[in-house]
């Protein structure tokens, strides 16, 4: 099942794909987010999506505090708890979201 917008008031596991090729596994039941770095090649022109950059804790689930924005056609914004001292939440921004897919029903 494909969705246009993902909200943190729903349940289930979803794959959020972005223009850079990165994928985010959002588990709303466990309140976790797992980022898988994309493999998009470096852009040849300014109009191409930027290549995926390595980010802290890629490949490891982190605590998902909330979703600010997760809509196809817009950049995503997730609130995360990265277990940093004196930091309540970190915003993880994405390139433009290309798809949101329900992984299990």
Characterization of this structure:
This protein starts with a strand and ends with a strand. Helices cover 0% and strands 44% of the residues. The radius of gyration is 13 Å and the shape is globular. The chain has one domain (2-102). It has 105 residues and is an all-beta fold. It has strands at 2-3, 13-18, 23-27, 32-36, 62-69, 75-81, 90-102. It has a six-stranded antiparallel β-barrel. The chain is built from no helices and seven strands.
- Record field, number of beta strands: 7
Which stretches are low in confidence, meaning pLDDT under 50 for 5 or more residues running? none
Morphology: globular
Distance between the termini: 9 Å
Largest sheet: 6 strands, antiparallel, barrel
Category from helices, strands and their pairing? mainly beta
Provide the β-strand percentage band.
Answer: 35-45%
Q: Give helix and strand order, one letter per element, not per position.
A: EEEEEEE
Contiguous helical run count: 0
Q: What is the radius of gyration computed over CA atoms, rounded to a whole number of angstroms?
A: 13 Å
Strand order of the largest sheet: 2-3-4-5-6-7
Helix content: under 10%
What is the total number of structural domains? 1
Mean pLDDT: 84
